[in-house]
Automatic annotation (TrEMBL):
This is DUF5518 domain-containing protein. Keywords: Membrane, Transmembrane, Transmembrane helix. The chain crosses the membrane at residues 6-36, 48-75, 81-103. It comes from Haloplanus ruber. InterPro entries: DUF5518. Pfam families: DUF5518.
């Protein structure tokens, strides 16, 4: 059985992914997760961070898809192997930065969502 916190984190991750075209969408997703959970500040941070970690999965899968397409096109180019390895390293670095961005801002949103629960 899925706990309420996990379900709310999943809903927050869906909000993050759906609103990914909006800047700072992880803050919104983490805030939704913590607000739905009715959490205090520490639980809000935890639920928000979990929401960000779940939302990172589609970002990583999209990055791997992008690298595979770049690798396919790079095979016909001279020096394509070096280009493929270089792009893989760039995507890995970008993925780590994106994961820190997503999880960190989701935790911030979780804190703000728990603050909303306390104030409303």
């Amino acid at each position: 059985m899925v706990s309420d916190s996990t379900l709310h984190a999943l809903l927050g991750a869906v909000v993050t992914v759906v609103l990914s075209f909006v800047p700072f969408s992880p803050v919104l997703g983490g805030g939704v997760a913590a607000y739905l959970n009715g959490a205090d500040a520490s639980r809000g941070l935890r639920v928000g961070a979990l929401s960000g970690a779940i939302a990172t999965v589609p970002l990583v899968l999209f990055g791997l898809l992008l690298v595979s397409f770049l690798g396919l096109f790079a095979l016909g180019v001279e020096g394509g192997v070096a280009f493929g390895i270089g792009s893989l390293l760039v995507i890995i670095v970008f993925g780590v930065i994106a994961a820190v961005y997503t999880v960190g801002l989701s935790a911030l949103g979780g804190y703000l969502g728990s603050y909303l629960v306390d104030e409303v």
